[in-house]
Every structure is written in C-alpha cells, then in structure tokens.
Request: fold
Amino acid sequence: MSSFLVCYGTGEGQTARIADRIVDALGERGHDATAVDAADRPADLDVEDFDAVLVGSSIHAGKHQSEVAAFVEANREALAERPTAFFQVSMSSATEEGATQAAEYVESFLGDTGWHPDRIAQFGGALRFSEFGFLKRLLVRQVMKREMPDLDTSEDVEFTDWQAVDDFANDVAAFVEGRLGHTVPDAGVSEAGDRSE
Ligand SMILES: Cc1cc2nc3c(=O)[nH]c(=O)nc-3n(C[C@H](O)[C@H](O)[C@H](O)COP(=O)(O)O)c2cc1C
Reply:
C-alpha cells in the first residue's frame, strides 16, 4: 500500500468531484489516498508524508487555480523526489477543437511552475448554470454560444468522462506500484515482488 496526496484547486466543485473519484479508485486498489483543497490546505500539510502526489486544477478565464500553482511552486523539491501526476479540468477538453488549447494550458502551467509530472491527464469539465450567480450565468452562456453553438445552455451540462478518470487513477497507481514496489493486497504480490501462493 502507498500513500497518495491528491491536491486540487476548484472554482465550482467539478475538480473536487474528480479528485474524490480518484481517491475512491486508489482506495479500491488498496492504497491510502487523501484529497485536499489547495485553497484550504492545512498549515501542517507536508508532501514528504506521502509516497506519491497528484495535483489537479480547473481552468477559469484561461488560467489555472492560483493556489494550485502556489502549492506546486512551494513544494517543487519534494514533488521532484516522488512519483507525481497532474490533471487539468476545462471546457477545452470537452471538444476535439479545444484539444490544442487544453494542451497549451498544460504546457504553460508546467513551464511556469518548472514541474515535470510523470503522468498528465486532461478532463472535460462541467457547467452548472443553476449554481451560477446572475452575471456569471449570463457571461458563461454568451461564451458557450460562441464556442459551442449547439449546446443547450438552459440546463446544467457535464462533459467529464468518468471512465477516463478511473483509467487515469489506475494508470497512476500502476506506475507508483511499479516505481515504489509497494504491495497491492489483492494482487498476491509480496513487498519484494515475489508471487505468494
Ligand atoms: C467563469 C468561467 C470561466 C471559464 N473559463 C474557461 C477557459 O478559459 N477555458 C476553458 O477551457 N474552460 C473554462 N471554463 C470551464 C471550466 O474549466 C469548467 O467549467 C470546469 O468544470 C470548472 O471546474 P471547477 O468547478 O473545478 O472549477 C470556465 C468556466 C467558468 C465558470
């Protein structure tokens, strides 16, 4: 079993939902995973206490959550010393046309923070118009009319591919298990990697 920190930044909660889903998937694999909101992280949170770290951020107005960038910059050394992964949540990842833009967001985040995660994923986000205030609803509807003219903006929409989230969590877990050689209880593999009967 390995310990995982999933540190995320969210505006309206979708990245938090994805972080929780990753925690569940890692837990199902026998790992000990904890999700922490970067904007609300305890003062005594220490990356050194975890075997591996996943960092997630949504995009708002072309930018990642500032607290997530601050977390990565403050912990650059500790992140470089352990397996890490980054996941990004945006509307750009909801369409094929947005893929280049989404990749540019990732590139600029990694360039700005100087971080080199071992695994990277990009997920489509959600627009919960019913939870937006008046002005935000108006603004986002206008933007979406331009970006996705066929989208019905009278209802909340979700573009997150939950299977892709599960696959990412399992891929990161497999990578960490391989790198650290920690036991996965159900796999019947001992700490040293020998098969037990
Ligand atoms: C005010 C606002 C601005 C946004 N700006 C962008 C943007 O510039 N590019 C993009 O790809 N997605 C953008 N999105 C889509 C969000 O990334 C998406 O809704 C995501 O699910 C938000 O995740 P969160 O709830 O964790 O913040 C925006 C959403 C909102 C509400």
Notes: The pocket of flavin mononucleotide is lined by residues 10-15, 58-62, 89-92, 125-127, 136, 140 (CB under 6 Å).
